[in-house]
Design brief:
Elements (H helix, E strand, L loop, with lengths): L45 E5 L4 H13 L4 E6 L19 E5 L5 H11 L3 E4 L6 H6 L1 H22 L3 E7 L22 H20 L3 E6 L1 E3 L8 H10 L4 E4 L5 E6 H14 L5 E4 L3 E4 H11 L10 E4 L14 H4 L9 H15 L21 E2 L20 E2 L5 E2 L8 E4 L2 E4 L4 H6 L5 E2 L1
Parallel strand pairs: 1-2, 1-4, 2-3, 4-5, 5-6, 6-10, 7-9, 8-12
Antiparallel strand pairs: 3-18, 9-11, 13-17, 14-15, 16-17
The protein binds nicotinamide-adenine-dinucleotide (NAD).
């Protein structure tokens, strides 16, 4: 039923021309690239990567833009608290890379961009990603992860894209106490973050069945490496250790996770983009499995601190719910010719080296991320009068986006209020920087 892109391995030499940017940011944490793993596909011309200023997608962009000068790549990101344009220093000056600031929930703007950039391929990473935050402001997760994905799928349907790669997570399976689970396992998410990721997947699959949208879904282990905002456990522990602090452990520290290095995941995504079969799901793993306590102790050792000294560890209240373990089988992905190349020892050494230089300054003030449970403000729920039948929701403004003569595009949500109507229940999201940013100009640069 599905058509697979034709490819063959290539040994074509690649110019990676290392460059030092003006403000001294190194071009890339991994500026030497080997040969690209797949030949360029004649079906791909204009790719949109959502969430490209975040952690994983910045590593994908680093490879995609440098390996494939044949592709025009647009990075579409709202620049939330966890992102940084510094993550793109290796590619932001290249002619096949473009950045557009905007929000995937902005239907008019997304549709406009698809048409303007003639998008044929989507790599969809943008999401609210931190489980702890999802216990605080879970509505924001539904908005960004579910509604945002739905808006992209609609744009993909209208514009007839050729490939829609949807990035999901191993957390959609819920906790796994026994054998590694395969892609056909029933989903059982247990926290608001993973529930919204599973909900987004349902929409992706429905759009494939209903409208024939050529989608592929990925479900990955925990990822670590340079560029990861220090709310996630590995960079958080590294930053705490650099600051001379003790490490805070949720609950008894026995919850287990598997960790895979960012460039391995980026290579997996490049393989799936070119070789993945439409309608398929690919688990991405396995990473190194460690309990939180084992992880903390290995990082203490790496910083020359005694892992058995109780003064180096502080056990704090557990999450509202904390999956005991995730364990996925990635045999199907191996069948595409990919396997992880970076050992945990090597990856963690590279990660520590990067954070020692950049960790405390890359994102500005990270103090709120280094708390045991960083929680975003809860949404305030209030009653608003019923929506009058026939009126359009403020979510889908009727006016088309306007373009200024200087090439600066104005997003369709400029006029959007912070009050979002869900049927008869009005939900006003607490004012936060990320929401405020959406009402700024959506500038484009290339
Ligand atoms: N980090 C992990 O361990 C991991 C594991 C498995 C799957 N994933 C998935 O991979 C993807 C990327 O994760 P990450 O850790 O790199 O994320 P991240 O939090 O580092 O970055 C997310 C990016 O998305 C952008 N973004 C968020 N909402 C947006 C919106 N509405 N419009 C436009 N941009 C928006 C943010 O500005 C940010 O740049 C996510 O879909 C996540 O669920 C992550």
């Amino acid at each position: 039923m599905s058509k697979v892109f034709k490819l063959s391995p290539t040994s074509r030499p690649l110019s990676s021309s290392p460059r030092q940017t003006l403000d001294g940011i190194p071009e890339s944490p991994d500026s030497t690239l080997g040969p690209r793993p797949c030949e360029p596909s004649p079906e791909i011309k204009n790719i949109m990567v959502t969430g490209g200023a975040g952690f994983i997608a910045s590593h994908v962009l680093d490879r995609l833009v440098r390996w494939y000068p044949e592709y025009n790549v647009t990075n579409f990101d709202k620049l939330d608290y966890c992102s940084s344009l510094k993550n793109l220093a290796s590619v932001d000056w290249r002619s096949n890379y473009h950045f557009v600031k905007g929000d995937i929930t902005s239907s008019d703007f997304v549709t406009y961009l698809f048409s303007e950039k003639k998008i044929d391929t989507i790599l969809h990473f943008a999401a609210q990603t931190h489980v702890d935050n999802s216990f605080g402001d879970s509505l924001d997760f539904t908005l960004n992860n579910v509604m945002g994905t739905h808006v992209l799928l609609e744009a993909a349907r209208i514009h007839g894209v050729r490939r829609f790669i949807h990035v999901s997570t191993d957390e959609v399976y819920g906790e796994v106490d026994g054998e590694d689970v395969t892609e056909d396992t029933v989903l059982a998410p247990s926290n608001p973050y993973s529930a919204t990721k599973a909900a987004a997947e349902m929409l992706v699959r429905a759009y494939t069945k209903s409208f024939g949208i050529p989608t592929v879904i990925t479900r990955c282990n925990n990822v670590y490496g340079p560029h990861q905002y220090p709310e996630k456990v590995i960079p958080k522990f590294i930053c705490m250790l650099m600051d001379g602090r003790k490490l805070t452990i949720h609950g008894n520290g026995q919850n287990r996770r598997r960790y895979i290095y960012a460039t391995d995941v980026a290579d997996a995504m490049i393989n799936i983009l070119h070789k993945g079969e439409v309608g398929e799901i690919y688990n991405i793993g396995p990473g190194q499995e460690l309990s939180n306590l084992e992880l903390a102790r290995s990082l203490l050792r790496a910083f020359g601190r005694d892992p058995d000294d109780v003064n180096n560890l502080e056990f704090v209240e557990d999450r509202a719910f904390n999956d005991s373990r995730y364990a996925i089988d990635s045999g199907k992905l191996r069948g595409l010719g990919w396997s992880p190349a970076v050992s945990f020892q090597e990856g963690i050494a590279k990660t520590i080296a990067w954070y020692r230089v950049h960790g405390l300054s890359w994102w500005g003030d990270i103090s709120s991320a280094l708390t045991p449970h960083p929680l975003k403000q809860l949404a305030q729920v209030e009653f608003v009068p019923p929506v009058i039948a026939g009126t359009r929701s403020s979510f889908f403004p009727s006016s088309p986006p306007q373009s200024a003569p200087n090439g600066v595009a104005f997003g369709g949500r400029l006029a959007r209020s912070s009050s979002i109507e869900y049927g008869r229940l009005g939900v006003t999201l607490g004012k936060r920087t990320s929401m405020d940013q959406q009402t700024s100009l959506y500038g484009t640069s290339s």
